[in-house]
Fold this protein.
Amino acid sequence: MEDKPPIFSTWERMYVFVLCFHAILLTAFYVITKILS
Amino acid sequence: MHYIDWTILIGSLVFITAYGLWKTRGKQDMHTYLVGHKDLKWWTIGLSIMATQASAITFLSTTGQGYESGMGFAQFYIGLPIAMVILSTFFLPIYYRLNVMTAYQYLEQRFDLRLRSFTAFLFLVQRGMGAGLTISAPAIVLSTLLGWDWVATNLFLGTFVIVYTVFGGSDAVSVTQQQQMIIIMGGLLFAFALMIARLPPDVSFLDAAHVAGKLNKTNILDFSFDWKNKYTFWSGILGGTFLFLSYFGTDQSQVQRYLSGKTIVESRLGLLFNGLLKVPMQFLVLMVGVMMFIFYQFNRAPIHFNEKNVAKIAQTDHFKQLDNQYQQVFEAKKVAVYQMIDGFHQKNDDIIKNSQLKVLDYQQQEQKIRTEVKNSIKAADKGAETNDRDYTFITFVMQNLPVGVIGILLAVIFAAAMSSTAAELNALATTTIVDFYQRQIAPNRTDAHYMIASQWFTIGWGILIMGFAMGFALFQNLIEAVNTIGSLFYGTILGIFAVGFFLKNIGARATFWAAVICESVILLVYLKYGLGNKDFPFLWLNPAGAFLTVGLSFVMQQLFKKRIELG
């Protein structure tokens, strides 16, 4: 019980959240690169 | 410098240090002194991890990278969130289960004392050199630009850090880092907002972003497979992941930060907090550099950013002639930039294209003049360092920002220098005490003895680091120098830990000799191809070192097994 994260119930979901956030960030970087150049 | 800036600078540094020492006052034993009371919450751990990594070099040098080469350096950090997830899953539970004070204690439990000592030694060598650079780099830049004595700046920075690390120990480092990180982030956001406010009235932020894009400053992602290109998506996601796995997973200066968590949950959340915020933070730092570039499209940039160098040739006719040419090119370039902005407003691709070509051509002319100035400086003083990239941000701050803001931004740079150095000092002392002194040199002494020894080792390392700092010069870009030193050792260290965690059949002897061979190969390759080569793709040393150590360990294990069978 003590080992659970405060949000998302399991650590696996927490990790997926971090990686999805990162993927969104990279997509934003890709869009910035394409649009501005 | 104005007295208001001095007051802000000194006031904020003294306040942070005093607060850290007051907050962590009370009796300590060796354990709490070295790794803290293990009562930290995730946000303190997360900020502490970020502050340890973000040294003054981050602000002096990364902004210079953004100014000169654009946003591509952001790719260096692409692997970081992935590394945080891997560390939370595999490394952290092992460290918590074994209740270790240093990462290298695990290696004795899994292998033997020899491999533990070897890995701890590699850490001490690379971190000692890295810490020297973290103090010397800002000292060189600040002393040159502000006219301070270089030795005095080194001593001021070093002594300040040594005092609060010696008296407060690990907890004081973490608590002060929390305040330092708040100053760093606040200062950065403030600088960014101020740069937008300093754009000419008829130029919007969107115009500025488009200009930056057309001048190749917003190319964040590069998917090419060019080995000569240091920063690509692939080097970031592969080389970067390995570098950060090794840095955060096996470098005691970081391991010590997250092992001070109240529970494994707090430590995990601290690591993930870093994984979420680090990339946006670096993006912001680089954006400050790009905004500085935009600022200098409308205001004349210094012909050379190190004023002390310029003073050496300022009175010569050749320099005056170059300066005149530089002014003319700047005026013509400014007109072309305004034409480009008109093109954006009219959505006229021809105007945009023509003005873009003109600006790029003027930029080349400016670059030629700057190179000639550098050559003249070299001719006047053969020993002069003409790489001025790391002076860009601080010159911009000193010449263009108002009184008060200068003090805030200098406080950012000093806070960053102190936060990373304090963590490094704490980690160097911890490794020396736990992995060498207590384990091998003077076992079974009283806690009071080890406590005093820890303080003396902290002082000793502090003096040694300042010694290293005095020996460094600006060989190349600072941020690359720090990461290159790390990359020379991190691959091997990560390989040793990877064998320990995942290949249970491989023993201590095979892993030790594999690590020795691998480290020798990495150093030889660097000496032959990397030394003095500013285009050397150092990030690839991390996966290469890790794979080579793992592969060689496997081969050696088979060889040793065969010898035993034959014997």
Q: What stands out?
A: Helices of chain A lie at 11-36. The interface with chain B takes residues 2-6, 11, 14-15, 18-19, 21-22, 25-26, 29-30, 32-33, 35-37 of chain A (CB under 8 Å). DSSP finds one helix and no strands in chain A. The mean pLDDT of chain A is 90.
